[in-house]
Amino acid sequence: MTPVSILAINGFGHLADLPCFKLKYAGASAVVSLYGGQVLSYKPKPDQETLWLSNLATWHNQQPIRGGIPICWPWFGPIAPQLMPQPQNSQQLELQPQFTNHGLVRNRLWQLEQQHCEQSGAQIQLSISVNDLPYYPGTIKLFLTITLNDTLRIRLNCDEDILQQAALHSYFKIRKLEQCKISPLPSQYQDSLSQQLVNTSSNTLQIDQEVDRIYHHTEPDIQLQKDRHSILISQEDHDATVVWNPWQEKCALLKDAKPRDYLNFVCIETARLALVAKPLALSQTISCP
Ligand SMILES: O=P(O)(O)OC[C@H]1O[C@H](O)[C@H](O)[C@@H](O)[C@@H]1O
C-alpha cells in the first residue's frame, strides 16, 4: 500500500500563518496555499525541490506570492483593452480602477472544495468565485485541481463561455542557469521585450540574458534539462508557453526577490492567451523521470 495523506498546515517556510495543505504520496510531497490557489513546493523525492519560492515572498497587503505556481486569470500580463470597461466620459475615465498584472485570483483566498486520498494519488480541489470581472456582470466560479502521484498535475477549469486568458506561471528552481536547456520550442516567438516576432534556427533555449518570450502553439511536452535532473512539463488546452527570466537589472527591481535570484529560477508558463469566449481546462503536469 502506498502511503497517501493530505494535511492542513498553518504557514509554510517564512510565510507565517499562510493556510496551506500538504499532500504526500509515497516519498513525494506538494504544498498548496489557499492564498492564490498556489502550489508552493513540489518534491518528487524528499530532497528534490523542483519549484523556486522567493525568500522575500510575502502574502500580506494583497501581494501575490513570488514563486511556486501562481495562477494568472482571466488575463495574462496587463489587462487587454477588450476586457476593460469603456468609459463614457472623462469622469468615468478618472475613476477607472487600476487592473493588476496577471488578473484577479493570485492574491485572493481560494476555498477547499474536496480532497481525496486514494492509491491513485492525493488530490485536492480548490475553488474561487469572482464577481468583479470588469467585462462581465455575473459571478464566475473557477476550479483548481491538484493531483499528486508519480507526477504533479495542476488543472484550472472554468466552464463558462466568457473571454478568458490563463497561465500556470511555474517558477522552476535551478542551480546552474548556464547549464539549463529548454526544448523543443518553436523556431518563432513573440518577444515581449521588443514587441517583435523573432525567428531562430534552434529549438533549444539556453538563457544568457533577459528573456520574456511567448511561444505560440508549443508541443504538449517540453523538457527542462537542469544540472542533475531533467523535468518534463506536459501541457493541455494551451495555445502558448511563456518563458521568463528577468536577468540582473530587472531582478534588482523586484521588491520580493534578491538581486541574484534570477540565477535560481526560470519560469515556464503553460498559457491560453487567445481572447476567445470558451470554457477553460488548462493543465500542466510536472514529472521528473
Ligand atoms: O512581476 P509579475 O507581475 O509577477 O510578472 C512576472 C512576469 O510574468 C510573465 O512571465 C510575463 O511574461 C513577464 O512580462 C512578467 O514580468
UniProtKB/TrEMBL annotation:
Gene Ontology process terms (BP): carbohydrate metabolic process
Keyword Methyltransferase in record: no
Protein known as: Putative glucose-6-phosphate 1-epimerase
Origin: domain of life: Bacteria
SUPFAM superfamilies: Galactose mutarotase-like (SSF74650)
PANTHER family: APOSPORY-ASSOCIATED PROTEIN C-RELATED (PTHR11122), GLUCOSE-6-PHOSPHATE 1-EPIMERASE (PTHR11122:SF13)
GO molecular-function terms, A-Z: carbohydrate binding; glucose-6-phosphate 1-epimerase activity
Database matches in CDD domains: D-hex-6-P-epi_like
Organism name: Rheinheimera salexigens
Keywords for this protein: Isomerase
Family the entry assigns: Belongs to the glucose-6-phosphate 1-epimerase family.
Reaction catalyzed: alpha-D-glucose 6-phosphate = beta-D-glucose 6-phosphate
Enzyme Commission number: 5.1.3.15
Record-linked InterPro entries: Aldose_1/G6P_1-epimerase (IPR008183), G6P_1-epimerase (IPR025532), Gal_mutarotase_sf_dom (IPR011013), GH-type_carb-bd (IPR014718)
Active-site residues (renumbered): 169, 269
Keyword Isomerase tagged: yes
Top EC class for this record: isomerase
